[in-house]
Amino acid sequence: MSGYAREFRRVTRADFPLLARWLATPPVARWWNHEWTAEAVERDFGPSVDGVEPNEDWLALLDDHPVGLLQRSRVVDYDENLRDFASLVEVPDGALTIDYLLGDPSAYGQGLGSSIMSAFASRSFIELPDAPAILVSVVAANVASWRALEKAGFRRVAEGDLEPDNPVDDPLHYILRLDRPA
Predict the structure, then answer these.
(1) Fewer beta carbons below 10 Å: N end or C end of the chain?
(2) pTM
(3) Res. 63 pLDDT band, cuts 50 70 90
(4) What DSSP letter does each residue of 66-127 carry, written as one string?
């Protein structure tokens, strides 16, 4: 598998078995620490598919093959996100946040993470023209994740303790930011 993921499509219920498989893979499970039962996937991704919550779930595609998941929302859409970001950095009005994972093991180690984030950030700025910036929080121990963000043009703007997704992690997180291009 080679190339750059520049195509995206919204997650549908037909993708839930794929998401469950990805969430169960050790590299994803390590950082996402998410349940992967059918019930848990329905509970956590169903409202986005149905459009009843502000979060959007997207699949990153490489040659029409799903390789990753992205979740996009405004920081202010979720109190916990706003509280966490605001505890470490100023949150501009309208700022977005993106969470992401590479799910397909054949996509690991090829630089796709930075390619996906760069392309999805560009798409987000086009689709949401009032968003001044994208903020992402990453547990500091997840070196591959924050390095991929830096390669995609994000810059580290803060660090501090936040509740980690996985309780085995130290609470130290980095906040990375990408501003809308001029």
Answers:
(1) C
(2) 0.94
(3) confident
(4) EEEEEEEEEGGGSHHHHHHHHTTS---TT-EEEEEEE--GGGTTSSHHHHHHHHHHHHHHHH
